[in-house]
Amino acid sequence: MPMVVVVTRNVEARYRGFLGSAMLELAPGVYAQPRMNAGVRQRIWEVLAQWYGHLRQGSIVMTWADSLANGGLGLATLGEPPKDIVAHDGILLVRRALPAIEKKPSD
User: Fold this and answer.
1) pTM (two decimals)
2) For residues 76 and 6, which has the higher predicted lDDT (pLDDT)?
3) More reliable by pLDDT, 79 or 23
4) Which superkingdom does the taxonomy of this entry point to (predicted)?
């Protein structure tokens, strides 16, 4: 059960109440849970994503230890440009994800 950290910025109070019920609020808008299983993490993200889909305000970043992800760190964002974690010369860097290129069917 890896540690999960959520950072919110310019979101409605409902996020603070919801996240505060499942995680520790270390600073305004910064939440952490040292032992959260993947199922709980995914359910929390589903609620955040659903609310964000309706409200479209602010931004939310969630990160957690993920041995399958690049650099061992999982990352999910709402309201920010998508980001990727990349390893370069033994250090981890965050870069804005490249937009997906829409492929059109061949004629």
Assistant:
1) 0.79
2) 6
3) 23
4) Bacteria
